[in-house]
């Protein structure tokens, strides 16, 4: 929950009043808002009131003692100023504005807030006591003792109380590690484990508190209809088998009415609920005192509550007064009311139940007393199925071999199946409520002192009450009465009330008001907790519940709480609702322990709790106990609760607002990352684990927007969220002058990465020139063993039109540097035509042209692409090139076998490239390329001089062409080779025909200027032309073409020729991914 801080005006040394806020602050408060992003970099930071505050602008330092730091004063305050402000900050409690009186004057007057004055006893101990002691103690503890026996009941109590005590120790450590504002456990968990865990556990705690409200309301109605005014029941059962359903229906009707009334009370006057809390607490304490008084009294004067037994079976004495079959009235033997329940009629000759005839009636004392020795009989458990008769094995019993047919007679029977784990789930809500003190942390005078002492003392006190209660109930009350859940054998009295002194009504009335008060407290606290989660903004769809009335009351949250609470009311059974809320509370307690353990083990610098009596082993033990109790009590409820928490966690992670709260999970992630990085650097990854770890080099436009977002789409499709992705960019200049542009560029790239669902890191470098910046990225991006092994760039399609040759030179240097660094390289041509992540390509092919072996990159990349749904329908085809001396049939068989061992499905085709003579088209291409190269060598001249030089070269070539043409006209036997556009096309097509074969020497004779061409360039151009011809012929309709990327020349003088070769190689193809291996095997046939 956000923390509110209010600055109180104080006098400084000059007597002037200093305000802690700007003059335009309407409400006069300076609020710590963790949601603010003052830096604009998208990372939420906590806004400190002590640094960069508006008041610092007013503190102009005029002294000379600290002149060395005078330039820092506008950003960093003096220590004396910091301490002065800190001393005058006041921590406000949640909802404090409701109790404040607004100033009548408009303007900047401040609201006066009283400093919290609650101590340990009133602020922590008593609220915890009130929340822990409640409905289970009064309505179910005696039944648990009778069913589980004293020993197993002590185990249940010990297990649950140990869990809460260990949780309290962990909570105390967290609560004393700095100021804990109102919000309690939610605030502690979210700030310790992060927004995902905080939101998930906070909502679980909210659901637990809401279902606790339902449980308390059901307890209230059970007391009302069973023990106070049973005649108020709307549904009545004529047959015994219908009694349970009638009771549940009555609980639903009256529970809904009670919930509505309580919701109205909370909505109208929550202040009165808080004021009545002491009254409800007094009822609880008075009831417990009366129980102990009754126990003491039973030692010498047990109360008279006889239980009527038929044989060894317990009878419900709601419909008869005398435990007799017959009685003598006026010397006549007549039947009793009990006779009529077991016989056809009142006549003594009537047909009666066999068991009734064969067994005698016995009266035993329900409360034999402390000195009776009944404790030895109540030591052991008596579990049984639904409908099992409550029996006293010490009494004689004749017949009744099949008691199933007798359960509809007025016997006391089990209303549910009983077993140890069920009782754990039912009992656990009686130890919840330990967070009451931490929830009031804003109202405490010294929260860091009061929360540990008050909470641990409250748990110790309630644990003593429960343990002593288990022993004393087992020592004072007859076993059959203990197992009588609703007191049917003692005329419908509350079982625990029969033991109390001076009257059972003390317990009945006290427990009734106690349950009412607890229900109101739950309906008051749960909406505020939901409002706090909603206002934190971590769960977007809950934001509507952050709003409320003008005074801050959570109206919408109250409506949702009442709706969820109604679900518990409709369940209607207290024994069915208790395990549900147990799950949610146990989930919350488990993560409190986890938070403490994580913080302790990480040893984060900020982890300095004042409470020193904690240890990470205790926290882990508490966490293990919570998890164990969850599955012990109800494994299916535990799975459902964990599933709900997991769904909320993933939702917040996927859609929730980003928060940086300095949580322990982030620290845990950093430690785990550090450990993993150190392990990764020990050895390079094995071939089986190799995957492309990409460094994506993006270009930005003049507005620092991403030029080619489809490059990120390709990255997402290639990676599918796996492995490392670093998206890099270089800005030209100095960092000091371009810091803002660098941050803006980083934000734009991150935004585009989010749009394209590219998971990875962004790295923007500012360098004096682009060449050095890219080099730095290639060398230093990544960390330790988590470095990139592949560089992905887009093909510079406009390199010919660029006036600055540095653009394509940078591209060639990238190729050289990745090769030197033994990194692979991917170059995407026409990247803007690549599919987005939302597209779905139909049936088509991904064609791989495997010319030279690159370590298997060409095989691996199509496989990775096809894992993504964009390329999932595409088939893979592999083409390889055979020379004249190769056996193409054997090559195809070998390649098919190789792919089989690689477990790759692909069509294989071997393309034969014959050693054709070099065509005139190739020579002309080479000539144009070298002429362009000669022109580009003049780049050191001015633009005008470069244009003049280009014109001279053009004129010279024109003259040479004209002279040659004249000579050809003079000799009619010579071939016309004037290279017009039409003739050039005709010659190109002619030379591509299989039978076209012109002698090389003849061509030289035709074009004498070709003799001066570099023969190496001619051969390279020939390869590019022929390979392009084959690829276009086979793969022009493919969705994607992958082919080997030739390396740049060792001599840098031919760089511009290299670009021309690649341009010719890619001509006529749409989507192309050129691949250059990193010098290592990346795919293997071995498992």
CATH fold field value of the largest domain = Amino acid/polyamine transporter I
Give the overall average pLDDT.
Answer: 77
Quaternary structure state of the chains depicted: single chain
Approximate strand percentage: 5-15%
Share of helix, binned = 40-55%
> What is the rounded Rg?
43 Å
Main-sheet strand order equals 12-11-10-13-14-19-18-15-16-17
* Helix/strand class: alpha/beta
CATH architecture of the largest domain: Up-down Bundle
Calculate the terminal CA-CA distance, rounded to whole Å: 52 Å
Number of strands: 19
Which homologous superfamily in CATH is the superfamily of the largest domain?
Amino acid/polyamine transporter I
Unreliable residue stretches: 1-63, 88-114, 960-981, 990-1006
CATH class of the largest domain: Mainly Alpha
Number of domains: 5
Largest beta-sheet details = 10 strands, mixed
Silhouette: elongated
Commentary on this structure:
The structure is a single chain. The protein folds into 5 domains: 115-301 and 415-633, Amino acid/polyamine transporter I; 306-414, no CATH class; 644-683; 687-839, Rossmann fold (3-Layer(aba) Sandwich); 844-959 and 1013-1086, no CATH class. The protein is built from 34 helices and 19 strands. A 10-stranded mixed sheet has the order 12-11-10-13-14-19-18-15-16-17, sandwiched between helices. It has a 3-stranded antiparallel sheet with strand order 6-5-9, with no helix packed on it. Strands 1-4 form a two-stranded antiparallel sheet. Helix 3 (120-132) crosses helix 9, helix 12 (420-427) crosses helix 19 and helix 20 (616-633) crosses helix 21. The two termini are 52 Å apart.
